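Residues and backbone
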Amino acid sequence: MIDLVSQLTHRKKGYTLEAPFYTDPEIFATDMDVIFGQHWIFVGVDVDVPQAGDVMLVKLGQTEIAIVRDDDEEIRAFHNVCRHRGARLVHEEKSTVGNLVCRYHSWVYDTTGQLIHAEHMGETFDKSCHGLKPVHVRSLEGLLFICLAENPPADYEEMERQMAPYLAPHNLREAKIAYEHDLIEQGNWKLTIENNRECYHCSANHPELTVPLFAYGFGFDPTELEPAEREHAENYAAMLNDNHRDWESQGLPSKEIDRLDEMVTSFRTERLPLAGAGESHTMDTKRACRKLMGSMTNAKAGALHFWTQPNSWHHFMGDHAVVFSVLPIDAEHSIVRTKWLVHKDAVEGVDYDLDNLINVWMATNAQDGELVGYCQDGVRGKGYVPGPYSPHTEMLVEKCTNWYVGRMLAHLARTRAVA
């Protein structure tokens, strides 16, 4: 039996976690209970369920959630479990229904989750007591978050207050999903997130992604720079300040907000300039879609980055958006779910070429999946010991890991206090 409190309390700051946190099924079960069971989890976008009656399934470990747009256009979420004898209710990843009907004994629920039909249950049976079990769901300017806890973290409102002005110009509710892709990574969910929270590895592993990205936007050791490199870094810093000033004058909030290790519902955002033509995450750095998103009027508006703990990162450009979620499968496997969004009126083959839209991140995801697999292979071995994060390029990984440790310890302390 692993003493989680001792392991977490004695974790060395600035270092990776001990191997069991990436491999042990018991710790994974605790992760699913504490991290994915008690916090706001990003699961999709409003336009995953664009019309009344549309349903989307999301799986977190062994728990399935049905996300439904009801007849009044409100998005609701329920545990995907019939209240009769526990049968799985919805079976397709996406579908459209009039009502939700259990295939086992034909109990029928409307799209608000109320039980409206159940045969042979007797005169004293009260249908109103057997509606679907609800799950908290919130939309942040078109980004869907759910929380399985009875009482979800209240600081979601603070994230919403700060982030809504950044996201609103891109107007995801007036977008459509041009493409979505699931990649199963051979690694623990924390390794996937650690990999995402740094670009130390980018120059050696992401030839496509480093075309639109500036190398100096993701950290560097100033003591290692040659004079020419130092000049480039200083020029980048000046350009960043100029861009932030110009974008904010256009009504595009851009300056960094970093709350990755300060809140229960933690997040980070910043609008960063893009290289080359400066328009999009494409191989030629030009816009991938002719129709701009939302109220955007400038294709050269950089890329707005938005990260949330514990499982998402997103990029919003003038012409399209790419949203990512990490959905744990088990201790050593995770799904990286990616969705590309364009303006709802954009026509494939006319306004955008699909390959051009998706190829940078399709390549990057595949490369990252391979790297995460390397790490998972390594942490299984007896030679693994926690290694140090770079203070110049992996400082956000440390914040992510420190947030995880803090949330786990807080929960375990509450559990001990109750016991």
Summary: The chain has nine helices and 17 strands.
